[in-house]
């Protein structure tokens, strides 16, 4: 469980850092191709999905009430999971990560727009993207706090 929780913390950090570094590159005048951005985003997204999926082995539910599809790619022909995962959330076994998911989606979309616009980033888009990135950092801190509580409660893992 400890390794899986640490992986969740690491993959959310990697996702956040990918978005932030991409934005900084563009803000500093560097070009980021949409294909490169998309490939990088797919990579951190897949790692994040995997980490959240593995947490299920420990019975840890991380509910995403409004945008569950973000951390679980939609399968054609299935119905949206909005609200369903939230019902699985409880004080003992989960955390509602809806805010984090929403903030990461918003930041991803805005960084993609920055890459599409290319440098220089229009002032309004730059401000909005900075706000979204800060919001995702703040939302991630809540998840990290939850993970730390779980690690503290679990104690050291023995080999």
Report on this structure:
- The chain is mostly helical.
- Helices cover 66% and strands 4% of the residues.
- The protein is built from five helices and two strands.
- Strands 1-2 form a two-stranded parallel sheet.
- The longest helix is centred in the last third of the chain and has 32 residues, at 123-154.
- The model is unreliable at 64-93 (pLDDT under 50).
Distance between the termini: 12 Å
The level of helicity is 55-70%
Q: Give the strand content.
A: under 5%
Shape: elongated
Strand order of the largest sheet: 1-2
How many H/I helical runs?
Answer: 5
Class per helix and strand makeup = mainly alpha
Give a short overview.
The protein is mainly α and 159 residues long.
Provide key terms for this protein.
159 residues, mainly alpha, two-stranded parallel ribbon, 5 helices
């Amino acid at each position: 469980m400890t390794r899986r929780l640490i992986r969740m913390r690491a993959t959310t950090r990697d996702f956040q850092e990918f978005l932030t570094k991409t934005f900084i590159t563009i803000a500093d005048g560097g070009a980021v191709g949409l294909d490169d951005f998309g490939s990088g985003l797919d990579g951190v997204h897949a790692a994040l999905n995997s980490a959240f999926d593995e947490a299920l082995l420990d019975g840890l539910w991380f509910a995403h009430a409004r945008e569950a599809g973000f951390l679980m790619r939609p399968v054609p022909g299935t119905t949206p999971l909005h609200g369903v995962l939230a019902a699985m959330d409880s004080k003992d076994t989960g955390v509602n990560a809806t805010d984090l998911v929403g903030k990461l989606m918003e930041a991803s979309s805005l960084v993609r727009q920055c890459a599409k616009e290319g440098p220089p980033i229009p002032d309004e888009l730059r401000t909005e993207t900075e706000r979204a990135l800060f919001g995702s950092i703040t939302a991630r801190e809540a998840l990290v706090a939850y993970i730390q509580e779980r690690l503290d409660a679990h104690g050291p893992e023995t080999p």
